[in-house]
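call fold(seq) -> tokens
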Amino acid sequence: MTDDTDAPGQPVTPPRRGRRRRGPRLITEAARDSITVSRAFGTAYDGEGARVVPVARVMGSTGSGSAGRYGGGGFGTAVKPLGVVVIDDSGTRWLPTIDVNRAILGGQVVLTVAVLTAGWVVGRRHTTVHRLGLPALPSLPVLPHLLHHRSGAS
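ret:
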């Protein structure tokens, strides 16, 4: 008997490359295994009469889809450290982590809003003064060396 791939007029099927079909259930199981309580509450450390337990926020999502023969899926996780719980003779304390990047960004946002607001106020005042014919703000005194430079004398 002849092999199917050797039979005349029959299409040759490429050999499988050892890939298994992976369904949505396998992806969900992998995500469940990686999003665990041990990621949120890390391994406790003992030292100098205190026990320290790291704490993090763990988020994850999974998804899959198919279009005809082809499909795909995946999952993602995000872990953000929040702080540590310190347990010692004096009691239990929560020590939060400080997100320096978030603090710097917050300062930049506040500064930007302040500068834009000041510019808007000055612009509105300038427009109102000219529209109503009010006297303008007194000008700042000019430094003597600028007057000297303006007059053209050397």
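The radius of gyration is 35 Å.
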